[in-house]
Structures are given as C-alpha cells and as structure tokens.
Design goal:
- With about 190 residues, the protein is an alpha/beta fold.
- Helices cover about 25% and strands about 25% of the residues.
- The strands form two sheets. The protein has a seven-stranded mixed sheet with strand order 5-4-1-6-8-7-9, sandwiched between helices. A two-stranded antiparallel ribbon has the order 2-3.
- The chain is globular.
- The model has no long low-confidence stretch (mean pLDDT about 90).
C-alpha cells in the first residue's frame, strides 16, 4: 500500500505572529524539521507539503499541493482532502508543521499500530488529550468521506473521526515524553 506523508503548512499562525512553517529553528524552517522526521521514519513513499495559495512557492523543490479553492480556511481536513483526492486509496501520515520535535520513531509506531489493527486510522493521544494532526489516516473511501463531511459544514477533525474506523496510540503508555509532542502556537513554546 502506498503511504503518503502530508506536512500541513497552510494555517494562519495568528498567535505565532508570523508564518510558523517558515520560521527557522536551528537554521532550518520549522516545516523542514517535520519533513525530515517523517522522511527519517522510513514509512512513506512520498512526502507532500499541503499549503495554501499564499505560501505555495515557499517550499523549494518539495512537492506541494494547494488546498482546493472551494475549501480554503477549513483547517487540516482541507489539506488532507486535497492530497487524498490526488492519491485515492493511499494511506496518509498527517503531521502539522508546528510539531517539530516529534521523534521519527513515533511515525513508525503509528504505521505499526495501524497494521496491528487491520489497517485502521490511528490518532496520537496523550492520556485523554488528542493530537489529531499527528495521525495516520487510512480508509478506502477516505476522499469521499472527507468530501461529505466538509460539504456538510464539518470542519472539526475530531468530529470526522466518527466517520472512519479509528484506533488511538497513547504517547505516555508508549513511553514517550509529552514535551516532544508540543504543538507550537507561540514563540515562547520553542525549546
């Protein structure tokens, strides 16, 4: 089965004060940290930068897919939909650009957990808190289910989980440090 990595970079970054996907940490843009960790995991066949029209030319030689014009500002599901539309039947490792400290071994765990649970989608959680933009999505009808959800006004990635078969993988139970999974919304949250 083809596995596509998706790096989400199309957010507004309003709390951060500038586009966080391009903000440099240790001399490297935040999105590139995430791209590299997904690549280092060894579980993807290809990695796509999912972004908006404004940022589409900011990612060098990386392959970019822009959100559908009719689905701008709908959050992570818009990016997932645009990539799922181009690669139907694939499974997708979704990681937001503002989680640059995730260990690449976690991406391997998501893939392994999906295989252990008969190909279910797998969402990262920390005790009762979900990390919905660190997930593996697989459903043979994912593109159509996303279209139905988005066209009915659904914007919440969490409410979309009701439409697909989902398993959860807990970072605490797996022995990982919760600090590595921080979603950076403000510069003060950088390590």
């Amino acid at each position: 089965m083809r596995t596509i990595g998706i790096i989400l970079t199309g957010g507004r970054s309003t709390r951060f004060g500038e586009d966080k996907s391009l903000y440099k940490i240790d001399g490297k843009p935040m999105y590139q940290h995430v791209y590299d960790l997904v690549d280092d995991s060894g579980v993807t066949d290809e990695i796509i930068i999912s972004t908006n029209e404004k940022l589409k030319d900011e990612f060098g030689a990386h392959q970019v897919i822009v959100d559908e014009p009719s689905l701008t500002d709908v959050g992570p599901l818009g990016g997932l939909y645009a990539v799922a539309k181009k690669y139907p039947g694939s499974r997708f490792i979704l990681v937001s650009c503002d989680t640059p400290y995730i260990p690449s071994s976690w991406i391997k765990r998501l893939a392994g957990h999906s295989e252990k649970h008969s190909g279910k989608s797998v969402v990262t959680k920390e005790n009762s808190m979900l990390h919905p933009t660190i997930a593996l999505f697989y459903d043979p009808n994912l593109k159509d289910k996303l279209a139905t959800h988005l066209n009915s006004g659904g914007r919440s990635i969490r409410s979309f989980f009701d439409r697909i078969d989902v398993a959860y993988l807990d970072i605490i139970e797996e022995g990982y440090d919760y600090a590595d999974f921080i979603n950076i919304n403000r510069k003060s949250e950088l390590k």
